[in-house]
Design goal:
Elements (H helix, E strand, L loop, with lengths): L21 H23 L9 H40 L1
Length: about 90
């Protein structure tokens, strides 16, 4: 006896894929697999490494953003240090 809260899964071929439509179903399945392969290649890139995927591009962008942020902090710290040094020299010479 099955619990009343579960749904029944229909048994048999999906709609439109009866015994007469097997060739059409196989063609549709081949198109779906080709589309999935294109999506997978877009995300991960191709196996030869000739075309970087979205994941690699995103990783490169994140690395560049981290490097840029560190460089900006270095420039800001150098500017503050130079300003403090200039003010100190002005005060010391007065």
């Amino acid at each position: 006896m099955t619990p009343s809260h579960t749904t029944r899964i229909p048994v048999g071929p999906p709609n439109g894929c009866g015994p007469l439509d097997r060739v059409e179903c196989r063609a549709q399945f081949a198109r779906v697999l080709a589309a999935l392969d294109r999506i997978d290649e877009a995300i991960r890139g191709n196996a030869l490494g000739e075309k970087p995927g979205i994941l690699l591009r995103l990783d490169r962008l994140e690395t560049a953003a981290t490097t840029r942020a560190r460089l900006l902090w270095l420039i800001a710290a150098s500017t503050v240090a130079a300003a403090v040094g200039t003010v100190w020299k002005l005060i010391a010479s007065a």
